[in-house]
C-alpha cells in the first residue's frame, strides 16, 4: 500500500525523534549535576569545619592555679608560665578553698597543691578533655619532685555520662531533629501558608525537645537532676533552629539545607565546647563559642546541672536571642511572601484586563 503523503517515511521520523531525546537527556543531566553541587559543598564544609576545629587541639591561655602564698609557689607558677609559652595562664591562690571555688565557678580548669604529697584538683564536669590536659601537665611536675600525683575531681560528671561528652551528643540529636524538620516543612509544606508552617515548626520543636529530655533523663541518665531545665533549654534551642530555617527557606529555597547545615552543624558543633573547650581550639571557633547557640545549650546545661546555675543566665540569653532571630526571620519571610503574592495578583489582573480589551 502506498504511504500517505502526510506521513513522513520511517527513517525521517526516527531522525526527528533523536535530537529531541538527546536534548532532554542533556537537560536532565545538567539538572542533576547542579543539584550534586550541594553534597559536594557539604563535604568540603564539613571537612574544613571539623578538621579545622578538632584535628590538632592545643591549649592556649588555659587557666590553672598553684595553691600557696609563699615564694616557692610563686616560683613554680612563674616557671610553668614561662615553659608554657602562652599555652597556660598560671596564677596563685592562697588556699585550697579558693582553688575549689575557682573550679566550681569555671574560672580555672586545674589547681595544683604542692608538697610532699602533691594533689591536683580538677572539675571534669566543665570539660573532661581540659581536665586531661591539665592532669598531663602536672603529672610531669609531680614526677620532677619524685612524688606520685593525687587527682581529685571536685565537680565530677554523672554516672550516666562517664566521658562528659553526653551533653554534646544530645546537642547533635536535637540539631538533627530540628534541621531535618526544616527540610520537610520547607519542601512538603511549601504550599502551606507561612503562619501554618511556623506553627508546625513550633510544634516540632516541642516534640524534639521532649525526645531530648527523655534521652537525657530516663533513657540514658546523662543528668542526675535538673531535667526540667534541660528540657526548657532544649526547646529554646530547637525552636530557634526551626524558625530560622523556616524563615530562610522563603529566600534560599533548595539551598536551605546547605545554609542550615552551615549554621547549625559546621559552625555549631565545632564551637559548642562539647568536645574541646575554646581554650583548646583555634581562635575562630573559640570566638564563636561566645555567642553561638550550640555553645549556649552545652554551657547552659553544664551550669544548670553541675555548677549551681553560675553563668546560666547568660547562656539562656544566648538561646533566647537565637529564638528571637528565628521570629524575626519568619516575620521578614512573611512580608516577602505577601509582596510576591501582591505582584502575582497584580500581574494576573493586568492579563485579564488585556484579554478583555482584546475581546
Structural write-up:
The chain is an alpha/beta fold and 359 residues long. It has helices at residues 10-54, 71-84, 96-104, 128-144, 166-187, 194-219, 227-252, 256-271, 283-288, 293-306, 312-358; strands at 62-67, 88-93, 111-113, 119-122, 150-153. Strands 2-1-3-4-5 form a five-stranded mixed sheet, with helices on both faces. Mean pLDDT is 90; it is low at 1-8 and 11-21.
Tags for this entry?
single chain; 359 residues; alpha/beta; 5-stranded mixed β-sheet; 11 helices; disordered N terminus
Shape from CA axes? elongated
Give the spatial strand order of the biggest sheet.
2-1-3-4-5
Number of helices: 11
Instruction: Kindly report how far apart the N and C termini lie.
Output: 48 Å
Total strands: the figure is 5
Structural class: alpha/beta
Structural Rg: 29 Å
| Overall average pLDDT | 90
**Helix share bin:** 55-70%
- Determine the strand fraction and express it as a percent band: 5-15%
Largest sheet: 5 strands, mixed
The helix-strand sequence is HEHEHEEHEHHHHHHH
Low-confidence stretches: 1-8, 11-21
